Amino acid sequence: MRKVIVSFVAGILVAIGTSAAYAEVTSMIGKRVDGQFPLKIDGELSEIPAITIEGVSYIPLRAAGELFGAQVSWLDGEIIMEKINKNVGVLPPTAEEMAEVARIEQERLDREAQQRNEIDRQINQLQSEIKTKIIRKQADISAKKATIKEIEEKIEENPEYISVEGPVRYKDTPQYQRDLERTAQLKSEIEAIQNEIDALEAQLAELEQQKAELEAQQ
């Protein structure tokens, strides 16, 4: 807390010259009071009047403290003013200061807008990349399903082959077992790819949510 120590005698009065500047006072001891007049603070009449000494006007220190938002006390032969309202006496901002504040605020808003735009750009790029991956994986699934369908149709038809030993059914050949294994492998691969697609779609949904939240901040 800022303290203003005034080394006047007890009952000191704050000097205010007729030019509204503070008068330099070395000592009030023995000085004659020329006159006194009512003192109003914020429209209210002070209990202690102001006085004049040798053509200089003085107001009570406690009244002066009220003007400056300070608390006045006496301690060890010194009068102490402690400022308790730091807004008292603060001048309103000038046009230049207000313009500077507005400029700083606008710069902050511009930076936030640029950050949102950059995040939005990154989200759009990720969405595009994920959608491309999904399309490719779906195409891979379609190709594997087509292969499975061909094998299953062959198994259902169970065609007959001609060999050196004579006619032989497809299901009695080693190729039948290989096709069964190939079908099981393809189905397993399709399941794994579908899991990847599900994960990618979950990422897309999360990106969409982030994008919506970003747009809500604008």
Description:
The protein is of the alpha+beta class. It has two domains: 3-83, no CATH class; 123-216. The chain is built from three helices and eleven strands; from the N terminus they run E-E-E-E-E-E-E-H-E-E-H-E-E-H. The strands form four sheets. It has a four-stranded antiparallel sheet. A hairpin with a 2-residue loop joins strand 6 (50-53) and strand 7. Helix 2 (95-157) runs antiparallel to helix 3. It is rod-shaped.
Structural class: alpha+beta
Biggest beta sheet attributes: 4 strands, antiparallel
- What general form does the structure show? rod-shaped
Count up the helices.
3
Determine the fraction of residues in helical runs and give it as a percent range.
40-55%
Q: Biggest sheet: strands side by side, in what order?
A: 2-7-6-3
| Structural Rg | 46 Å
Q: Unreliable stretches, pLDDT < 50, 5 or more residues?
A: 1-25
Gap from first CA to last CA: 42 Å
Number of domains: 2
Q: State mean pLDDT (0 to 100 scale).
A: 77
> What pattern of helices and strands is seen along the backbone?
EEEEEEEHEEHEEH
**Percent in strands:** 15-25%
The count of strands amounts to 11
Can you give keywords for this protein?
disordered N terminus; 218 residues; 2 domains; rod-shaped; 11 strands; alpha+beta
In short:
With 218 residues, the protein is an alpha+beta fold. The chain contains three helices and eleven strands, in the order βββββββαββαββα.
